[in-house]
């Protein structure tokens, strides 16, 4: 008989010592089940055997009312005494093959996994599921000396589970604000596997209102799973598509150049009407020009980097740009990005010269463990480094060589790996959400002759991503909270396309002006042409190619 299938979505691990003062354990448990907990593990670190059995027995009685299975932490004897669905064991507990012999073929066995080797062994030993941790620091267990895996490390482990049938939850430091970042950021780089659920102690147990806490977490996990399912449907059927970043359900036949141009025009008007604030943590070399291009398209720049300030500003901004050209404000970047995720703001990451030094590579990894970007923009060297491709070597901030043999597939694969929109800039620009690749062929050779043109493109992507979110909210007010797992509402692919198109078309017009004699005059003319650009000009000049 096959073992029962468990729903790992919201996996409550109990912790009586973490209850708020005065809250009864059984009352808290029942409320959390009403909020949507799908699986419970009884974890008793201080109880003696008799007490553990009694707690497990009463826990199972309550869970049975809600048809929620119970597992026992570590103790095979308690599992056998109470007749629960199975056990969860750690690396130093009873070895899995022995545990299987003792509890029989039908019981569930989950195993804690901290790295790739432990995961391989869990697969060999036929664990039913693995608990991947610790994702982030936690006060609920002593994890001193252990490396936090972050969403990235979790995703690498998920890749190994491809086609194995082994399920996976993540554990450690998971709370409502960082949950969307974990779910999106842990989508595995090679096979796009995602978590089956999350294991939680304190976010539920320490809550005064465990029903609400569980229900909030459940809503995010459910909507993430729905979005993943519709993405898979698109890949299978090749018809209507809906990536995790795109709320608009588009039909392939309607997604044409004319449609894109019309939507870019809409966003140009939104920016002028709504003047969103764009916070830019950017490098010293380009700060002034970036602020000016922001103003030229109708948005409003702010260049705040102080951690307290970016925290307070976050709810009020339209989008956040993190450009780590001079990496002076790492703490500010960590806080700004994290708060952008929490407040569901578009977060644009420009990893300037990321492949040039190990410091830059490590900083990028560290930042990406703190937050999930909506868009990653770079030149060939930067995108190559992010994709861990050796095809294009990195030389300072410039892309060496002519780029990739197949740029479309590089951006598409990286978009899947990073669960973000990827923008590759160069003589032609390539943009992908992991499903589609858009090639844009506007621009001027002068862009290579002024400093910070790539940085300005990142700024404009941030402006138009903010416009895309505003546009979405203006049109779908009642559906504001339709998909709580969404990192940001609005069509972020469109925001990226609009930013690049507006910038490159304006650069063409600037370069054609008779008063432009070289890079110096081009630089000023570019800001003027961004300011004067009309939707009609975009429509006349845009060179767009859509590839599936
Ligand atoms: C779902 C889940 N994952 C990991 C753990 C940790 O188990 P273990 O390593 O055995 O540590 P203790 O829980 O015994 O402290 C877990 N309990 N549940
Ligand atoms: C029990 C446990 N195991 C972990 C691991 O990494 O194996 S982390 C952890 C504690 C999880 O508690 P919270 O949800 O409060 O962070």
Automatic annotation (TrEMBL):
Keywords: ATP-binding, Kinase, Magnesium, Metal-binding, Nucleotide-binding, Thiamine biosynthesis, Transferase. GO terms for cellular component: cytoplasm. GO terms for molecular function: ATP binding; hydroxyethylthiazole kinase activity; magnesium ion binding; thiamine-phosphate diphosphorylase activity. GO terms for biological process: thiamine biosynthetic process. It catalyses: 4-methyl-5-(2-phosphooxyethyl)-thiazole + 4-amino-2-methyl-5-(diphosphooxymethyl)pyrimidine + H(+) = thiamine phosphate + diphosphate; 2-(2-carboxy-4-methylthiazol-5-yl)ethyl phosphate + 4-amino-2-methyl-5-(diphosphooxymethyl)pyrimidine + 2 H(+) = thiamine phosphate + CO2 + diphosphate; 5-(2-hydroxyethyl)-4-methylthiazole + ATP = 4-methyl-5-(2-phosphooxyethyl)-thiazole + ADP + H(+); 2-[(2R,5Z)-2-carboxy-4-methylthiazol-5(2H)-ylidene]ethyl phosphate + 4-amino-2-methyl-5-(diphosphooxymethyl)pyrimidine + 2 H(+) = thiamine phosphate + CO2 + diphosphate. It comes from the Eukaryota. Pfam families: HK (PF02110), TMP-TENI (PF02581). SUPFAM superfamilies: Ribokinase-like, Thiamin phosphate synthase. Gene3D superfamilies: 3.40.1190.20, Aldolase class I. Coiled coil: none annotated. Pathway: Cofactor biosynthesis; thiamine diphosphate biosynthesis; 4-methyl-5-(2-phosphoethyl)-thiazole from 5-(2-hydroxyethyl)-4-methylthiazole: step 1/1; Cofactor biosynthesis; thiamine diphosphate biosynthesis; thiamine phosphate from 4-amino-2-methyl-5-diphosphomethylpyrimidine and 4-methyl-5-(2-phosphoethyl)-thiazole: step 1/1. InterPro entries: Aldolase_TIM, Hyethyz_kinase, Ribokinase-like, ThiamineP_synth_sf, ThiamineP_synth_TenI, TMP_synthase. Its cofactor is Mg(2+). Residues 10-204 form the Thiamine phosphate synthase/TenI domain. In the N-terminal section; belongs to the thiamine-phosphate synthase family. Condenses 4-methyl-5-(beta-hydroxyethyl)thiazole monophosphate (THZ-P) and 2-methyl-4-amino-5-hydroxymethyl pyrimidine pyrophosphate (HMP-PP) to form thiamine monophosphate (TMP). This is Hydroxyethylthiazole kinase.
């Amino acid at each position: 008989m096959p073992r029962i299938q468990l729903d790992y979505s919201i996996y409550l691990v109990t912790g009586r010592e973490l209850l708020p003062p005065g809250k009864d354990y059984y009352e808290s448990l029942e409320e959390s089940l009403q909020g949507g907990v799908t699986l419970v593990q009884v974890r008793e670190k201080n109880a003696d055997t008799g007490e553990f059995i009694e707690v497990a027995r009463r826990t199972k009685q309550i869970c049975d009312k809600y048809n929620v299975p119970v597992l026992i932490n570590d103790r095979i004897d308690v599992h056998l005494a109470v007749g629960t669905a199975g056990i969860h064991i750690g690396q130093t507990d009873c070895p899995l093959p022995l545990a299987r012999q003792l509890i029989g073929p039908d019981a569930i066995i989950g195993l804690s996994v901290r790295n790739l080797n432990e995961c391989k062994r869990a697969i060999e030993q036929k664990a039913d599921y693995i608990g991947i941790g610790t994702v982030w620091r936690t006060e609920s267990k002593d994890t001193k000396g252990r490396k936090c895996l972050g969403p990235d490390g979790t995703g690498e482990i998920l890749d190994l589970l491809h086609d194995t049938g082994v399920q996976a939850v993540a554990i450690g430091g998971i709370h409502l604000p960082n949950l969307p970042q974990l779910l999106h950021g842990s989508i595995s780089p090679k096979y796009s596997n995602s978590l089956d659920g999350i294991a939680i102690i304190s976010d539920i147990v320490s809550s005064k209102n465990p029903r609400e806490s569980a229900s909030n977490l459940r809503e995010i996990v459910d909507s993430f799973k729905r979005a993943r399912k519709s993405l898979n449907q698109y890949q299978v059927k090749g018809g209507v598509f809906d990536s995790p970043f795109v709320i608009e359900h588009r039909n392939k036949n309607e997604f044409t150049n004319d449609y894109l141009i019309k939507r870019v025009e809409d966003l140009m008007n939104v920016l002028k009407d709504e003047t969103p604030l764009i916070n830019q943590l950017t490098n010293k070399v380009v700060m002034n020009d970036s602020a000016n291009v922001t103003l030229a398209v109708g948005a409003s720049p702010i260049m705040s980097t102080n951690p307290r300030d970016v925290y307070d500003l976050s709810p009020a901004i339209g989008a956040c740009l993190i450009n780590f050209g001079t990496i002076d404000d790492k703490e500010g970047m960590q806080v700004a990005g994290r708060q952008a995720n929490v407040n569901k703001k578009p977060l644009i990451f420009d990893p300037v010269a990321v492949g040039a030094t190990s410091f830059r590579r490590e900083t990028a990894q560290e930042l990406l463990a703190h937050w999930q970007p909506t868009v990653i923009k770079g030149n060939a060297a930067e995108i190559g480094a992010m994709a861990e491709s050796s095809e294009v070597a990195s030389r300072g901030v410039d892309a060496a060589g002519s780029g990739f043999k197949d740029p479309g597939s590089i951006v598409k694969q990286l978009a899947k790996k990073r669960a973000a929109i990827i923008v590759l800039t160069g003589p032609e620009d390539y943009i992908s959400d992991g499903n589609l690749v858009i090639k844009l062929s506007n621009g001027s050779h002068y862009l290579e002759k002024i400093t910070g043109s790539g940085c300005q493109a990142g700024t404009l992507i941030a402006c138009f991503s903010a416009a895309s979110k505003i546009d979405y909210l203006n049109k779908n007010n009642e559906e504001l909270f339709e998909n709580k797992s969404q990192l940001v509402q609005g069509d972020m692919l469109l925001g990226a396309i609009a930013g690049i198109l507006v910038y490159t078309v304006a650069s063409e017009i600037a370069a054609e002006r008779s008063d432009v004699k070289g890079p110096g005059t081009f630089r000023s003319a570019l800001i003027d042409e961004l300011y004067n650009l009309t939707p009609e000009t975009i429509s006349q000049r845009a060179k767009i190619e859509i590839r599936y």
